[in-house]
Amino acid sequence: MAPRKNASVSSRKTASRPAKETNGGPIADFDRDAELKAYREMLLIRRFEEKAGQLYGMGFIGGFCHLYIGQEAVVVGMQMALKDGDQIITGYRDHGHMLATGMSARGVMAELTGRKGGYSRGKGGSMHMFSKEKNFYGGHGIVGAQVSLGTGLGFANWYRGNDNVSVAYFGDGAANQGQVYESFNMAQLWKLPVIFVIENNRYAMGTSTARATAQADFSKRGASFGIPGIQVDGMDVRAVRAAADEAVAHCRSGNGPIILEMMTYRYRGHSMSDPAKYRSKDEVQKMRSEHDPIEQVRARLLEKGWASEDDLKDIDKDVREIVADSADFAQNDPEPDASELYTDILL
Ligand SMILES: Cc1ncc(C[n+]2csc(CCOP(=O)(O)OP(=O)(O)O)c2C)c(N)n1
Ligand SMILES: [Mg+2]
């Protein structure tokens, strides 16, 4: 898991907030409020995903469902560096991204169960949710498609002359898709404000990066286009925040795109139907016990005396209530009317 920084990145100086260097790359200095915010938001994603897994097991969720458990620090740390107006786009492992943008737990859960109150009125499901209000552009089931679309969002920002950046998240598997490199080329040619976040969770379905990828240092994938890249400890929300600050500053100052490779890990299988036989239980257990993103924050909060066990229990209770309420809503809200079959479609 040792994160390395890419020596070719010169924009590191442009970090917008103080960050101290460690041998694993810069770490943002979090005060008590930042730690508590990160803790709460990561916990919300974790508990939400656990509940989604349960509802899936009970037959309430149809179709595909890809859980984000283990990767929470990536979206939460990134989101902390963004401002209103910045856009997010990702693949199908998307519930965490939605919650991090502030989309409601009720709306996301109800979409998972195919109910009227869901973000796509119950017609999209896990992989197809959007929120114009929160600048969340999906939710895409075609591996890699969001990279081109996210570059398009960057183009729109550039064309309109605003200072928004777009963040296109994709996996280590998606990083081997051809359209990714067409997007890199155009993004760098036109100096588009796009942050390409590669969530390297070490597997693409059941295939490890070692078996599938010729250049496993994904932070270097933009090298031939001159796009800088940084490798980040994606299990440490402070490291993510520091890299995100740097990337945002790079893009907003008109320097073009940047790549952030987040070294992360998913604890669950690829989707709910994956028995995960391609890796050992020990490997998963080791990540959970030594690198868990939520446990890291929890330990710091306790150690610094910034929160007591009781304070943390209260946060957990609040978060569980939000999730329980969303699950309740998602089971009781009606399904969309049959007439909805003919709306929101292109004929
Ligand atoms: C174009 C395309 N090819 C193949 C698939 C099948 N598929 C779905 S997810 C996936 C693996 C992607 O892995 P990665 O990009 O590492 O993301 P992760 O699931 O690890 O988050 C594949 C091959 C697809 N959905 N779309
Ligand atoms: Mg992957």
TrEMBL record:
Question: Which EC class heads this enzyme's classification?
Answer: oxidoreductase
Q: What is its EC number?
A: 1.2.4.1
Which intervals of the chain are annotated as region Disordered? 1-28
Domain Dehydrogenase E1 component: start-end pairs: 41-338
Q: Which GO terms describe its biological process?
A: pyruvate decarboxylation to acetyl-CoA
Names of required cofactors: thiamine diphosphate
Its recorded reaction(s) are: N(6)-[(R)-lipoyl]-L-lysyl-[protein] + pyruvate + H(+) = N(6)-[(R)-S(8)-acetyldihydrolipoyl]-L-lysyl-[protein] + CO2
Pfam families per record: E1_dh (PF00676)
User: Is Oxidoreductase set as a keyword in this record?
Assistant: yes
Instruction: List UniProt keywords, sorted A-Z.
Output: Oxidoreductase, Pyruvate, Thiamine pyrophosphate
Q: Which residues form a coiled coil?
A: none
In alphabetical order, the GO MF annotations are:
pyruvate dehydrogenase (acetyl-transferring) activity
Keyword Transmembrane carried by entry:
no
Family annotation (NCBIfam families) = PDH_E1_alph_y
Q: How does it assemble?
A: Heterodimer of an alpha and a beta chain.
Could you tell me what this protein does?
A: The pyruvate dehydrogenase complex catalyzes the overall conversion of pyruvate to acetyl-CoA and CO(2). It contains multiple copies of three enzymatic components: pyruvate dehydrogenase (E1), dihydrolipoamide acetyltransferase (E2) and lipoamide dehydrogenase (E3).
Q: What is this protein called?
A: Pyruvate dehydrogenase E1 component subunit alpha
Highest classification ranks of the organism: Bacteria, Pseudomonadati, Pseudomonadota, Alphaproteobacteria, Hyphomicrobiales
